[in-house]
Amino acid sequence: MEKTITKGNTEVQILNAARKVFIKKGLDGTRMQEIADEAHINKALLHYYFRSKEKLFEQIFEKALNDVFEVINRCIYEDGDIYTFIETFVTHYLSLIKENPFIPNFIFNEITTHPERMKQLSTQFKINVPAFRHMIEKNINQKKITPIRPEHFMVDLLGLCIFPYVSRPLIEEIFFKEQPAETEHFLNERKQHIIFLMKKALQA
Amino acid sequence: MEKTITKGNTEVQILNAARKVFIKKGLDGTRMQEIADEAHINKALLHYYFRSKEKLFEQIFEKALNDVFEVINRCIYEDGDIYTFIETFVTHYLSLIKENPFIPNFIFNEITTHPERMKQLSTQFKINVPAFRHMIEKNINQKKITPIRPEHFMVDLLGLCIFPYVSRPLIEEIFFKEQPAETEHFLNERKQHIIFLMKKALQA
DNA sequence: GTCTATAACCGGATAGAC
DNA sequence: GTCTATCCGGTTATAGAC
After folding, report:
1. A117-138 burial string, b = 16+ CB within 10 Å, else e?
2. Which fold has domain B1-51?
3. Which of A170, A173, A177, A184 to mutate to test the interface with B (most CBs of B within 10 A)?
4. Integer distance in angstroms from CA B60 to C1' D15?
5. CATH number of the domain at B59-202, out of 1.20.120.530, 1.10.357.10, 3.90.330.10, 3.40.50.10420?
6. Is the Cβ atom of A31 within 7 Å of strand C at any atom?
């Protein structure tokens, strides 16, 4: 009776466990045994459900990439106001990262350590670049913002949001060694700070 | 005679080879055989010179971290003008990354995949935080810039410089799929763009 | 110092009982 | 579907000749 709670979803348990371990340790650093332990099942079951380590990994990687692209696309409206865009983008993106702080690092690392394979997996995801470019250019033409290359704008926003989480251990070590709790507070301040920074930088 | 060119510096050859492989593949993804091949020597020699894979790795990791911190510290002057700081910092930092584009990813990844060990190694490096804070606060008091928390300012600069290189494969895929050579041009534009962006954002 | 050969170990994958 | 036991390839590390 109590067992029914988890009955039938061994597959889900495995996926959750795999996600947790892969994201923290990467493809090469992950041991199938550790996933099995985390999922409270036997190593052999992993192969029963997913055939191989790599097959299991691909599912996790694709899902992670999909989440990241989805949030970006949800914020893009061809005719949107750019100041609204900045606010919604930063808000949604930071909340995604806050809930999954290891994801960006995970993605970047797998792409650089296994370029061929990951590149192939990553090509299926797209962001709506034409709509994004259109939005920026329209706002420029309306003199709402100073001229800027759309690609720089997007990279700026992503870098400002993502970098503090990717480099968190070093930031903690450098700036907040004496009061580690302050790091959390600092990261929470980022939202207002980034919005302020980008709005001011873009003023026409 | 020709052999003397490399005689006596087997150790250096190994370090160069190890650096190249570790930085691209990470600690877990690196095989000692690959380092040996890259250095054109035998696998056993690696152990003769460095005892173990981990010992060899530590040397590479520490050197990488040291380079990164050194550049930052070289730009900090307690009484410096902040607009000068922005220019020299961005210039030096981008040229470091351009020459070693995989270093940031390498460092972040090792710290997250092996937190205990790497944290320990990273504590020996410091940036001159008091001088940096002093510089920012002085410039604020002189009304040269709008008030900003020094930590945010540093994280902004680093993120804007580093992120485009860390995410290069995705940027290429998303924005420049049709003309991959354009990525290089885009990255070269970053220097002027970041300087422009930060100066404008900080204006008093 | 540098090599070849091999030991010792680990981890992904499979066989086969239940 | 789930387990235990085991295989087998690959990888770090060492022994020992030169």
Report:
1. bbeebbeebebbeeebbbbbee
2. Arc Repressor Mutant, subunit A (1.10.10)
3. A170
4. 28
5. 1.10.357.10
6. yes
